[in-house]
Every structure is written in structure tokens, then in C-alpha cells.
Amino acid sequence: MIPVLYGENEKQFQNNIICHLGECADCIVTEELNNIYECEFLYPVWGKYYSEIQEGCFIGATHDDKGDIQPFEIYKRSAPINGMVIFYAHHLSYKASRVIVGPLDGNSAVGLFSAIPGHCINQCPFDLHTTRNGNEQFKITVPTSLRSVLMAKKDSILSTYGGEFEFNKWSITLTTNRGQSTDVTIRYGKNLTGLEQTIDAENLYNAIVPYWSGKVDGEDVMIMPDGSDQIVVIGSPSEIKPVVKDFSSDFKEAPEPEDLVEAAEKYLAEERPDVPKENIKVSFAHLWQTEEYKNVAALQRVGMGDKVSVYYPELGVVAENVEVIKTVYNVLLDRYDNMELGQPKETFLSNVTEKMKDDIEEKVELGWTVLEERWRLALEELTYNMLHPGESHVVFYRGEVDENGYLNNPEYGTGAME
Known about the structure:
Blueprint: E1 4-6, E2 17-20, E3 26-32, E4 37-44, E5 58-62, E6 69-77, E7 84-91, E8 100-101, E9 104-106, H1 109-115, E10 127-130, E11 138-140, E12 144-145, H2 146-151, H3 157-161, E13 164-168, E14 171-175, E15 181-187, E16 192-200, E17 207-216, E18 219-223, E19 232-233, E20 242-246, H4 257-271, E21 277-284, H5 297-300, E22 307-312, E23 317-330, E24 335-342, H6 357-364, H7 370-386, E25 393-397, E26 400-404
Parallel strand pairs: 10-14, 15-22, 17-20
Antiparallel strand pairs: 1-2, 1-5, 3-4, 3-23, 4-7, 5-6, 6-7, 8-12, 9-11, 13-14, 16-21, 17-18, 17-19, 21-24, 22-23, 23-24, 25-26
């Protein structure tokens, strides 16, 4: 689609369009599950509507291949480089950081979502919905932004009750599972065009030293388990890697030492902080957009929160029922550039033989299949022969070559496949 521009005071995002940004050179929407939701677009300073694009205005752009247009508030621009400017915008839901919620407490997500509008110090323009259950106690004692109340990493409704957020203009919804399990497979030789695996082993630990601190009969008290229970370990590791964890907020009253041990064991079993977080980023052909699959398009479509399977037996990668946790959508081309799949509670390397690890490091590091690697080398040689360094670049969009001299921007015209 061609992105559209709305004024800074627009509320409905339907008909009051200032202009269509037809000269937009690139437009990408990136969304991460329970995290960032942003849009970046490239526009020339000589463009017809350049002067209309101001911080505070909104760009309307699709974020998935269903054609749903979402508003993104422009908050920053880059300095012009060869006549091109990068504009940065975040989703309308970020305005929740400007809504302040007063002291609030409750013991269910449904009750809290209903109570929040009445506890806002300023007006809350958002419609809040949730289907999450749970009876955990939640409490804030000082004024806090709505966005932090909903989804901060600690002491938020998300950290207390779990779930997955979905944002649709002024609507914010917390569900158990945003997507659904699908029968879609992404397979080498079928629809897989690129694969990259990321393993994050930083900050791993396999043991906790739990404690509680608070007042008992007006005096400050700190409680810890005794003896060998001072360190609670998961499994039988060759090396114990402990961290200190405060469980004060988990107990209304001073707990017994054995209660702290039980809480630590439960936390280790549920969170598995000893397992590396492993994600894979895939690029693949969208079969639901092809003539061959048109009759089963609904069964082949993939979006945020859906679960799919990835098979690349030549590299030993077999990842079943993994969730889409990040999408990068190309607005101008009406398709996903890539998706990231995450399954932090399991290790993909358990499916990979030692014999294949060297191949994975060589071929997967940059996400190229063998065919793409050969293609890349040939195109790099062609680029070198065609273009004088510093004058212009060849930009590759997953095999489609667009040679434009005005895209002489290192971030967008890298001379490598994106």
C-alpha cells in the first residue's frame, strides 16, 4: 500500500487523510510480541508532501498482509543524506505512556482492566479488554503511566498475569494466546528462503538465594532458608550459578524458610533461567498469496503469535510448533520481509548433531541458504562492475533489484540482500 498521512489531532483515522505519500521510497513496520511496535519510512526532501510530514503527525500503514491500517505517531527524523530522510514513528498505543494511573489494587486482570479508567488522573482514551484469568494480587502505590502498569518488565499486569497484548488503534487487548497453532510448515525446498539462528546464553543462572524482608511487630526483619537450603538449585548442574532473588512481594506476611524454598523451586521450574533463549529468523515465500494455494489461503496464512514449524534437515534444524514473536512487514511491497520465531523453553541445538554444527555456523550465520549465498556473490560482483563507489548503491529486496542513484544511504543501500 501507499502510506497515508494524518494530522496530529486526528482521532478516528478513517477519512481525514492529509495526503498519500506516493514518493515514499521505503516503509517498514516492525512489531515484537509484548514489546516494540514501530514504523520507519524513507522520504525525499524534494517530495511533494515533505513539508507536511511533521513530528506529532501520524502515518497510516499496514502491519500485516490482511490490509489492516494502523496509525503510527512520528516522533523523530534523521538528517538528510543525499536528499533522503528517515522518519521514525511508534504505534498509537504508545500514547498510553502519557496516561497516568493513580494508586490501584486488585486480584484479577479482568477487575483491574475495568478499574483502570476510573483511577486515571488524566483522561484515558483507550478501550481496555482482557480474557486473562488469575487471582494474584496486584498493587501500585504511586502514580504510574498506563503503559508501565500494563506491560513493564516488573510489577505490571503483564508480569503478574502473563498473556499477549494486541493493539488496534485505541483498543488494547490482553489475551492468553494472540495467535493460533497452525499446520503451516516452513521447509527448505518448499518455501524457506533464508534462516538465521540466534542463541542468547547471557545472564543464565541455575540457582537462587531467596530471601524476604519486611516489618514484623514494627521491626525490620530479613528471612532466609537455613543451611544447605540457602541456595536452591535446579537439576544437578556441574557448576552452580546462583543469583539473589527478593520474594518479599510474593508474601503478604513473613514466610517460613521452607516457604521461600518452595517459592524459589517453583520460580526455577516455571521460568527455566538455565536454558538459553533461542530464536530463529526466517524469510519464506508466502504461499497463501499464490494461485496454487488460493483455495487454502486461510490455512497457510501466518501472523503474529501464530505457531508454525520449520524444517531444514540439511542443517539439522527441526523446530516444531514455535511461535511468531516478531514480524517485519514491508508496507510498499505488501508482504513480510521476515519473521522471528521463539521457543525459549526448549533448545533447538538438541535437534542438531555435532557433525552439523560447523555447517550451521557457516551457512546460517547471515541467514543465507546455499543458493542465496551463490546468488549474493554474483550480485556483489555485478554491483562492483556497474557502480562507482560512493555514487550510488544497488538495493536488494529479497531477490528484486532496484537500482536508484538517490538511495545512496548506507543504511538502506548496502549492496547486500535484505
